[in-house]
Write a structure and sequence with these properties.
With 174 residues, the protein is α+β, with helices and mostly antiparallel strands. The chain contains 7 helices and 6 strands, in the order H-E-H-H-E-E-H-H-H-E-E-E-H.
């Protein structure tokens, strides 16, 4: 995913809203599911404003909301079919988008994925990344792939691997 930056010169609220919608949809197309706190951080807005935006997007069908069995009632958001269609209209890649929340609601990796998103946001801000590629969207011949690859505008790439539980030493040398 190419990281879209907010245009601070936009003065019309409708254009600002469309820009936020596009950025949120792109994030969800890349990471499949997220929560309001992470999306607010990605959009650079207050969480209360993000809840309003996400609620409006859900009413339009752009987003689906659900709860995961492993997150203790945390409301998560994923793309709806109209959201994927909107991305296609804007010419954005939506091939890897997931629009079924049944599997996401049972997924045991959602907490891991949310942690990866939080770290990714920290690193994106710190290193001004131009691209982000999440684990499931990384094409490689190897069975081992990082959780996320970050790319800076100068072409420098960094891979991030996040483990919530300790692994054995041999894991680090595979």
């Amino acid at each position: 995913m190419i990281v879209s930056q907010r245009n601070q010169d936009l003065k019309v609220s409708r254009a600002q809203r469309e820009e936020k919608v596009l950025i949120a949809l792109e994030w969800l197309a890349e990471f499949r599911a997220s929560n309001a706190l992470l999306l607010a951080r990605r959009l650079g807005i207050a969480v209360s404003n993000c809840h309003k935006l996400l609620g409006d997007m859900r009413e339009e069908g752009l987003l689906l909301s659900f709860e995961n069995n492993h997150t203790r009632g945390l409301r998560l958001f994923a793309l709806g079919r109209p959201g994927v269609q909107r991305l296609n209209v804007w010419g954005k890649d939506s091939q890897a988008a997931v629009v079924k929340t049944q599997n996401l609601a049972r997924s045991t990796t959602v907490l891991h994925d949310l942690c990866v998103q939080r770290i990714t946001l920290d690193l994106m801000d710190r290193f001004e990344c131009s691209e982000v590629h999440w684990d499931h969207n990384i094409k490689t011949e190897s069975r081992i792939r990082p959780d996320v690859i970050l790319v800076r505008p100068d072409g420098y790439k960094a891979a991030l691997e996040f483990d919530r539980t300790p692994k054995g030493q041999t894991h680090f040398y595979e």
